[in-house]
Design a protein that fits this description.
The chain is built from three helices and twelve strands; from the N terminus they run αββββββαββββββα. The protein has 156 residues and is of the alpha+beta class.
């Protein structure tokens, strides 16, 4: 039995949740996120909480895994539109430095020309000395952009 899937997700003040057939939309002060859910999983709102359950009470391992997965994804959506997510990347090396060029990021990492990273919608870059701060309301997108920046020059 999934322990994660059983936990209700509390809806904070200022957040609206819409559940349509196969789709959940979460809207808050920082932005709006949408996810398509598997037909085997059911979501409903009761007493200011989102409850995730299986449609058929089978012991299928795949459905068990999806139940906990969708509960975690929806909880991340709710916390993302209220508080947001942030990753801090520290650059070390002689001559290695990140620079802001408008909203985009320019990285001097030992190549002849600086490497430029475009800032996608919903993401903000900030630079404090040698630390790059990637922030946004979508956890997956923040992690993906952080991985792209990390991939520019692998650690030695």
């Amino acid at each position: 039995m999934s322990r994660i899937g059983k936990k209700p997700i509390q809806i904070p003040v200022g957040v609206t949740v819409e559940i349509k057939e196969g789709e959940i939309k979460v809207k808050g002060p920082k932005g709006e996120l949408t996810i398509n859910i598997n037909p085997e999983i059911k979501a409903e709102i009761k007493d200011g909480n989102i409850l995730i359950s299986k449609k058929n009470e089978t012991e299928d391992k795949k459905v068990q895994a999806l139940w906990g997965l969708y509960r975690a994804l929806i909880a991340n959506m709710v916390s993302g539109v209220t508080t947001g997510f942030e990753k801090r990347l520290e650059m070390e090396g002689i001559g290695y430095k990140p620079l802001m060029e408008g909203t985009d990021l320019s990285l001097n990492v030992g190549y002849t020309n600086p490497v430029k990273v475009k800032c996608p919608d919903g993401i903000k870059f900030a630079v404090e000395k040698n630390i790059i701060i990637v922030s946004g309301f979508d956890k997956a997108q923040v992690g993906e952009i952080s991985a792209i920046i990390r991939k520019v020059k692998k650690a030695e």
